[in-house]
Amino acid sequence: MVLQEKLYTVDEFLEYINRPELAERQFELHEAVIVEMPSSSKKNTVLEAWLITLLNIFIVPKDLGVVTSPDGGFKINERNYLQPDVGFIRHERTGGLEGVEFPVCPDLAIEVISPSESAYNVMSKARIYLHNGTAAMWAFYPEERAVDEFRLASDGNLLVKSYGSEDTLSADDVLPGFKLDLREAFKVLK
Asked: Strand 108-112 relative to strand 86-90: parallel, antiparallel, unpaired?
């Protein structure tokens, strides 16, 4: 849900959302417009936590970077501040772990899509991430047990590849050797 007509910078956005009356709500900044994010369902939060675990099992022993939770904010640029449900960012790009937000987009962004979230919103987030340096965005659909992988084509258009629950995801350009069996990923949704 769009909250206003005024366009905000990231600094103005952060000042706005830190008002006490907004403490229980979650927001992102999409192309300078504040967007209130829907509350996550139980299925979404369980899947998010499991994906974080599966990524950390691979990433932490190899010391590749950090995995973020839905509270992790990324200052993509002056017009965009996103909080992927799960993010991966290589150590050399984190800017350290002090402060509130990461100064760049994640290397891999994972969004767990709520039934109320529009396809337009999913595509909009994919465009923002990919046009600003994210290598891939995975959109998980818990109800359908499916995933859309978004990547950037050489001409700047979005490429979308769809996966079912029997498939395996990989992102060798971001996490060499990492394979995500979607049966394993979705097994927590009973």
From this structure: antiparallel
181 strand-pairing partners = 168
Query: If you count them, how many residues does the chain have?
Result: 190
Sign of CA dihedral 138, 139, 143, 146: negative
If you search the block for the tokens 């994640």, which residue do you land on? 106
Name the H helices within the chain. Answer: 10-17, 42-62, 119-131, 182-186
Phi/psi at 138 (nearest 5 deg)?
-105, 125
pLDDT tens digits, residue range 70-112? 888 999 999 999 999 999 999 999 888 888 889 999 999 999 9
Collapsing DSSP states into helix, strand and coil, what is residue 43? helix
CB 145 within 8 A of CB 186: yes
Q: Quick one: fold of 40-186?
A: tt1808, chain A (3.90.1570)
**What is the C-alpha to C-alpha distance for residues 56 and 34, in angstroms, rounded to an integer?**
31
Beta strands in 21-112 (DSSP E): 27-30, 33-36, 65-68, 73-77, 80-82, 86-90, 101-102, 108-112
At residue 122, the 3 state secondary structure works out as helix
22-58 tens-digit pLDDT: 988 889 999 999 988 888 889 999 999 999 999 999 9
Structure tokens at 104: 């760049």
Exposure on the CB side of residue 14, measured as CA atoms within 13 A: 15
